[in-house]
Every structure is written in C-alpha cells, then in structure tokens.
Amino acid sequence: xxxxxxxxxxxxxxxxxxxxxxxxxxxxxxxxxxxxxxxxxxxxxxxxxxxxxxxxxxxxxxxxxxxxxxxxxxxxxxxxxxxxxxxxxxxxxxxxxxxxxxxxxxxxxxxxxxxxxxxxxxxxxxxxxxxxxxxxxxxxxxxxxxxxxxxxxxxxxxxxxxxxxxxxxxxxxxxxxxxxxxxxxxxxxxxxxxxxxxxxxxxxxxxxxxxxxxxxxxxxxxxxxxxxxxxxxxxxxxxxxxxxxxxxxxxxxxxxxxxxxxxxxxxxxxxxxxxxxxxxxxxxxxxxxxxxxxxxxxxxxxxxxxxxxxxxxxxxxxxxxxxxxxxxxxxxxx
Length: 334
Ligand code: AQP
Hints:
The chain is mainly alpha-helical and 334 residues long. It contains 13 helices and 5 strands. The chain has a 3-stranded parallel beta sheet. Strands 4-5 form a two-stranded parallel sheet. Strand 1 (6-11), helix 1 (19-32) and strand 2 (37-42) form a beta-alpha-beta unit. Helix 9 (214-222) packs antiparallel against helix 12 and helix 10 packs across helix 12.
C-alpha cells in the first residue's frame, strides 16, 4: 500500500476557537484525516508570544484539546498533542534560530500586524514565532501544511529555512508545501469586516466563539456591522459586512453566493442577520454537546494527551537528533 503523506497543523489556545478557525481550518482538518497521516498540535508556546494570563492559558489548553476532539478530530487516528509537552520543539527552534536571518523574519506580515498591537514592548518570541512554527512542521517531516492565506508566508519561510539547512549541513528535513486543497474560507470580524476574525480580539462582539450559546450568537449577528444599502449582494470591496455574512451562511449551508442572493432577494438586513445567526447556532449545537462530554471525561483527555505527547516526542526526537548531529552538537550516550 502506498505510504500516506504527512499533514501538520496547529492552533493556538489564545482564546476559544471562533467560527473563523472552524470554517477556515478545523472543519477541513477533520476531512484530511481520510487521506493523510495527520498531526494536530495545540500551540501553547506560540500563544505566549503575546501576553497571557497563566491560569486562563492552562484552562484554555485543556478546553482547546477537548474542542478539537469535538470538531471530529480522532486522537486514535491522528496524533493530537500539546506543543509544550514535546521539548524538541523549543530545542529545534533554537537550532533553526542559528540558521535563520533577521531580514527574513522582518518581512513577515503577521509580525508587522501583531507587533503594532503590542505597543512599545514587543517580545522577541513574537518576532521568532515563524521559526518555532518551522520547527513544529520540520520535526515531523510533514509534506503538507494546511493553512489559511494568512499563514502562507510562514510556510514558505519554513521551506526556505529547511532548504538552506539541507544544502548547508546535509539532507535533514522534508520540504513542506502549504496546502489549500480544501479551500477554507477566510471569515472576517463582525465589527470590522475588512479584518480577519480573531479569537483574541478585545471586542467580544467581533467574533463568534464555537461555545457561544444561541442567544449570544444571534445577538452578535444582529450587531454585525453592515452598510445601509439594504440589499443582500456579495461584493467584498463595497459591501464587506454583508459579503462576510454571506460567506458565513455559505459555510454553514454549502450554498453558493448566487443561491444565497436569490434566497434573500427583497429581505431586509435584520431578517438576514437573524437567519445567519440561527443557522450558525443550529450548526454548532451537536459540536457543543460533544465538547461538554469530552470536557467532562478528564481521564480520557489526560490519557489521549499523554499518549499524543509520547508518540510526538519519539517521532520528533529522531529529527532533532539528526539536526543536532548535522550541526556538530554532541550527544552523550546515557
Ligand atoms: N478568521 C479566520 N478565517 C479563516 N481561517 C482562520 N484561521 C484563524 N482565523 C481565521 C485559521 O485558523 C488556524 C489556527 O489559527 P491560530 O490559532 O494558529 O492563529 P491565528 O491565525 O492567529 O488565529 P486567530 O484566531 O486570529 O488567533 P489570535 O487571535 O491568537 O491571533 C490557522 O490555520 C488560521 O489560518
């Protein structure tokens, strides 16, 4: 039988996952399990590149793991683990730091965006975020990295880092490709519809979390910022708010934009927002029930987290050890 390719993806426990994370990434991850050997990581070391409250991060790491399982990711089939449980990530990050150029990291648009929000004291970790991400991917010799448009630049940098390392020190890493096979939609903020929806946005009305209850979801959609032209037409440029709501409705119903425009011809914005809100709330109902069940079964979560970390560590260590040797780092036999 042909060996399956390896797919690697990660998500930060920097907030409760939003419908942006879900329709842009998680829903597709579930499907990938049919065709690839998948690794899914809760990237808590990435989350601390911006300030976090320790107790909240701890709690959210757990909740994020349960939420991943609730979306349909099967930890018996895929490797699902927490990043900090595999120290090889931090160590390979350091080795790669010593082969990556400042100029390369300075060009990263996510750094430019996120550092602006941090004011004066920007953490070195935020600048170095893409190198840790490269370490994540390269440790598992991943062939593909399913990402949204926003992460494409980081995967390209990862490839450059790997290629240079291989050329300089000898073949060590598989060169990964960004993967858009299952095109995930980019969902924008409900309050600033020209900007990506983010789970760590200060304005809770800007995002819909996967765990929001029905009333909250409907309220957030009712408050969504739109124009005043009162026609439900897809036009990202001139009608970003309504277009974003059309995209969200399309993700839930699998209808295309033309079908949606026809369905809501002559309908006012208020009723359209209500329809989108109700469809999202109904869509998330089963997921929320599964989430509660997983979260209540702490011993199962502990077992899967431990098993995931052990397997990930043994796979990761093989690559780390090779990279160390290539660089001339001694390994004393214990
Ligand atoms: N709004 C979005 N639309 C589509 N896809 C999205 N993703 C994130 N937001 C959207 C995709 O979700 C995956 C995991 O993202 P992440 O947690 O690693 O980091 P992020 O992209 O920075 O996500 P957030 O929600 O915006 O987190 P914070 O607020 O902490 O910065 C990625 O595949 C991403 O493309």
